[in-house]
Amino acid sequence: MTLDNRAALIARTLKQQASAMQVGEKLPSVRELTRTHGASAATISQAITSLSALGVLRAEPGRGTFVAGRSDTQQPEPDYAWQSSALGRTRVDANRAGRAGGNGATGQVQLSWGYLAPELQPFDELRTLGARCAKSHRAWTMAPPTGLHELRQAFAAGLEAEAEDMLIMPGGQQSLVFAMRTLADPGTTVITESPSYPGATLAAQAAGLHIAAVPSDAHGILPDKLADALERTHAKLIYLQPCYANPSGTILSPERRIEVLALAKRHGAFIIEDDWARHLSLEGKPPLPLFTQDPDGHVVSISTLTKPAAPGLRIGALAARGPAGERLRTARIADDMCVPPLTQEIALGLLSSGAWPRHIKRLRTGLRERRDAMVAEISVTMSGARLVIPTGGIHLWVRLPDGSDTTAFTSAAQAAGVLIGDGKHYYVDEPPAPYVRLTYSAASIPQIQAGVRRIATLL
Fold first, then answer.
1. Most exposed of 142, 180, 347, 366 (fewest Cβ within 10 Å)?
2. Residues linked to residue 301 through DSSP beta bridges, in sequence order
3. Peptide bond just before 195 cis, omega within 30 deg
């Protein structure tokens, strides 16, 4: 039985509690346990069921839950020691992966979760679309491995591409892992700007790639440093976020876009363009995708609906031309037969209706208000902190006073009930200065203000 993190934690606590009790002694009721642990009844039941399977507890419907009589000598703990040598060295940094996931516990102020708060999501529209699409026979049949043609057309429209260039994917993160694994051989190098999205680092590690970091500034990756890295590593893969980069919010300047494309052409390299924030512009229009400036197939572009719509709408698209596009589309069948057609139908309904532009307009207003509230609170309460206000995206990249320990600060913030991002996780190598990432999309304005005030006292 697979437990989520919360149920597993409660199960460990209940197991310790049971070990101090007599066989046959009754545990508190599920209702009492939900109050004690601040968890749902379903989570408590999941924890109890897992312990019942191990013989620690015995649940009797109508009577309650009791300490079971099976002792450790009768039912020894599983021995997983053999797995460590069988598995070998892990590729993925567990600490980085742990920081990247999880939306926090009840009562915590979420200034780290990179998704939209429920009130910013088009919930009513998605609920209506979901009910309508579920009635369609097409939602329950097989879709082509490359995705529904109409949905491919919808994603292609924003890229000046053809539907045949598109591959529907189950979200942006899966697109990253898949593209890196398919376009590069294990043991080769991917170049990434620094700082950068930790999920890209995880994707590269999962694909067995070495990572070379190239510094960026307020205008994006530094072309001269990129040229040096390409010469030194012979890398054939470059990962970039040209539009509202996570975590810094920077936009790759027009001049550097030309230089970066020229370098990719000179070295015969692919650029994976992570275009996750295209629909999250807060001021003016975002630049056109880098994909639109590349006639020769050097750019493979990733777009997603998960960020601008809802975390559970796990759908995105890969755009690629030429043999690389054909290889990606062919390799897709090895992962699964297709993205669930129901999810594709809902995404298509959203993109092709008037609900989508209305949602984007509301979202722009809501995110801008949250960004401005966070900036104002930081300027008043966090003495010595510095930042550049981004024109899009969902993050603020905040530099703390010199000498600050960002890991200690992040841990102290969590202890105070506020989740923030440790800047160290956005660098492959040592960070040049103490940064934290504060996200304004997942919390309300009062929560943002209270959270910033709380962590300001820790400085």
1. 142
2. 273, 319
3. yes
pTM of the model: 0.81
Residue whose pair of structure tokens reads 């309300």 in the numeric block:
444
Please classify residue 105 by burial: count the beta carbons closer than 10 Å to its beta carbon, then call 0-12 exposed, 13-18 middle and 19+ buried. middle
Give residue 233's Cα distance to chain centre.
28
Predicted local confidence at residue 73, as pLDDT: 43
Residue type, 339: V
Q: CB 264: neighbour CB atoms within 10 A? A: 23
Supply the pLDDT for residue 122: 97
Helix axes 406-415, 445-456, angle to 10 degrees: 120
Dihedral, CA of residue 446, residue 450, residue 455 and residue 458, to nearest 10: 160
Q: Is the dihedral of CA 410, 414, 415, 417 positive or negative?
A: positive
Q: What is the mean pLDDT of residues 395-403?
A: 96
Beta bridge partners of residue 299, listed in sequence order:
271
In this prediction, residues 182-189 reach a mean pLDDT of 96
Q: Distance (Å, rounded) from C-alpha 349 to C-alpha 126?
A: 9
Tokens representing 351 are 């993109």
CB 440 within 8 A of CB 371: yes
Q: Model confidence over 325-369: pLDDT tens digits?
A: 999 999 988 888 889 999 999 999 999 999 999 999 999 999 999
Contact (CB, 8 A) for 142 and 341: yes
Name, in order, each residue with C-beta under 8 angstroms of 222's C-beta and a sequence gap of 6 or more: 214, 215, 216
Q: 221 with 255: CB under 8 angstroms?
A: no
Residues whose CB falls within 8 Å of the CB of residue 142, separated by 6 or more in sequence, listed in order: 337, 338, 341
Residue 287 carries which DSSP code? P
Q: What is the largest CA-CA distance in the chain?
A: 74
Cα–Cα separations (whole angstroms), residue 333 to 144, 145, 204, 315, 316 = 10, 6, 21, 16, 16
Exposure on the CB side of residue 419, measured as CA atoms within 13 A: 21
Residue-wise pLDDT tens digits, 197-242: 999 999 999 999 999 999 999 999 999 999 999 999 999 999 999 9
Neighbours of 52 (CB within 10 A): 15
3 state SS of 304: strand
Contacts of 124 (CB under 8 A, 6+ apart): none
- Distance between CA atoms of residues 435 and 399, nearest Å: 4
User: Which stretch of DSSP H or E encloses residue 51?
Assistant: helix 41-53
Residue type, 228: D
Cα separation of the two ends of the chain: 43
